[in-house]
Amino acid sequence: MKTAFRRLAARFLEFQTRRLMHHRTFKVVGVSGAVGKTTTKMAIATVLEQKYQVLVQRGSFNDEIGLPLACFNVELPRHILNPFSWIRVLVQMEARLHRPYGYDVLVIEIGTDAPGEVPHTLTYVKPDIGVVTAVAPEHMEYFASLDAVAAEELALVAGSKQALVNHDDVAPQYRQHYVDRMSGGHSYYYGLGKQVDYGLEVVQTDLVAGTTGNVFKKGHLELSKLTFGLYGRHSARAAAAAYGVGDLLGMTEHQLEKGLARLKPVSRAMANSARRLAAPMTTAFTIAMSMYRVASPRMAISR
Fold this sequence. Notes:
alpha/beta, 12 helices, 41% helix, UDP-N-acetylmuramoyl-L-alanine:D-glutamate ligase
């Protein structure tokens, strides 16, 4: 029964998200990958905020429930057993559909726990820029092989208007099959060093002082000895991704430099705050849906 309630919630939230995306005027940046999604997402948002009004999905609750709620900037109710809390969520979503969005760019994670989830998400969320952070073993109880993981995560490349892929953490055979041959010339690579479209060469990295590095675009030095508050080479890749997304969205060198300088580690508390959101769906949602139908009899849920 709990699974049935969750599916009902997911169908309704997907329906509302399709409505939101149908006439959207804002850009969407979607981040997928086996690891590094949250750090990369927050780095992208920090940089973009130097030019745009940005709505960024907090935490890492990125499934069929969390992602639609993030698109509407609505949180799952604290008291999930209270049907009136769900009514409040439904009313908030409906209100947002009938007024200006209020943001220029939406930055979200597109997660997966099983094959087919990323491709399905892309049927109702079409990113302007898709960022793939890594292909690595994940949820292998559901994926038959690493090849299956690659097919899932890299579906974002074909499903986005433009794509930015981590050259360092996606194996050559997957880059060739899903990026180089299938991208139609709309994809770019980011990573460490200068031999990628958007690269960051680490000069030094320190747990307290952060990381200092040189930023390259297509092999040309753009920013020299830039310091930002992230530690480690893995975090430097997130900074390179943020630089690439900002450049693709038309930011100036000054805006990019200012944004990169403001990068900070993702708060552990924020990253874990979404754990409570993964609580099982209950009959409260069904009660809320029934009440909502009474108030809005013409509302229909469709795939």
